[in-house]
Amino acid sequence: MIKYRQLLARWETFLVLFLFVILIFGSWVSKYFVTVSNISIALQGVAPVALLALTMTLIIVTGEIDISVGSIVGLCAASIAICLSHGVPIGFAIVVGVAVGALAGAFNGLLVAYGMLPSLVVTIGTLALYRGIAQIILEERGISGFPDWYQNIGLGTVLDSPIPWSSTIFAVCFFGIAVYLHRTRWGRALYAIGNNREAARFSGINVKGTLLGIFIASGVMSGLASIVLTAYLASARSDTGTGLELPVITAVVLGGVNIFGGSGSMLGVMLAVLVLAFVQNALGLAGVTPEQQQIVTGAVLVATLVAFSGSTLFRSFQANLMRSRSAGD
Domain spanning 2-328 has what CATH number? Predict the structure, then answer.
């Protein structure tokens, strides 16, 4: 009985129930919602956000944040596009895009880990910096004409099945990062840093090196997300990835990762990504505009933060009550 109660009390259980409610709502909105083709479309649309949420989870677990991921995606997309416009082979252009993402993430990480600057302030600054560089590179141009195999990354499915290639890429990345976070000592080090940075340092954890590493990983993932997104859109512009920060952070926080660091699971983040994907898809079928969908996403983020704050206060109250009772005894 205790195990069942613990299961019901888990945030992931709430997300599963929430997902069922969304499926019921979507079925009521449109008869096309619960169809294989529509589910495939919903998964394709959320793939860039899902990829970025994986490494954002690592960053937030340590108590940091990266607001610049959307701008890094735009910079990587601009780098790939400018390479193509100069006749560079698409394979090399992809390598350049990912390398640019790694460098951008490394710059963020160096300022946060070794410059001892707040990640929120740093990445707000680099959000504008990277977007500005992308605009200088491409100006107002949009680059298209990608090869068919490249566009299949964002729009194609695996061997004529309904499973998108982008979802397959996400599944591989999810498995690798989940194992890293939950089954290795390096993953446990991230939780230790998020709970108490000084204690983690005294216990022998290379805090600065670890922070630099996860910011580089975030940059690499932004490069990968730019490939998926440009393939999905079949074009690259300097404003590619604009606004991705909000759904990415929403997915991580909605997934149960403590915004102050120290706790969270990859399973919860994956469920949260599915929730966002199907909420947006259902709202789209209901005729809700993208601007109005952003309002819903922001409201979900605020509501989740309020819920976590209330839960934290309630647990603190329970702990204080138990201590007072023990003292009275």
Answer: 1.10.3470
Is-contact 76 93, C-beta < 8 A? no
Using the 8-state DSSP alphabet, how is residue 164 labeled?
A: B
Phi, psi at residue 254, to the nearest 5°? -60, -30
Which of 155, 136, 138, 174 minimizes the C-alpha distance to 271?
A: 174
**Contact yes or no for 32/288 (Cβ under 8 A):** no
pLDDT(131) > 90: yes
The residue assigned the tokens 């994986």 is 54
First to last CA, the chain: 28
Cite the DSSP H helix spans in the chain: 2-9, 11-29, 36-61, 69-85, 90-109, 119-138, 148-155, 165-183, 185-195, 197-202, 207-233, 245-254, 266-285, 290-328
DSSP 8-state symbol, 32: T
Helix axis angle for 165-183 and 185-195, nearest 10°, is 70
The structural domains of the chain, with segments of one domain joined by +, span 2-328
Query: What are the tens digits of pLDDT across the range 254-272?
Result: 898 988 888 889 999 999 9
pTM over 0.85, yes/no: yes
Handedness of CA 78, 230, 248, 219 (dihedral sign): negative
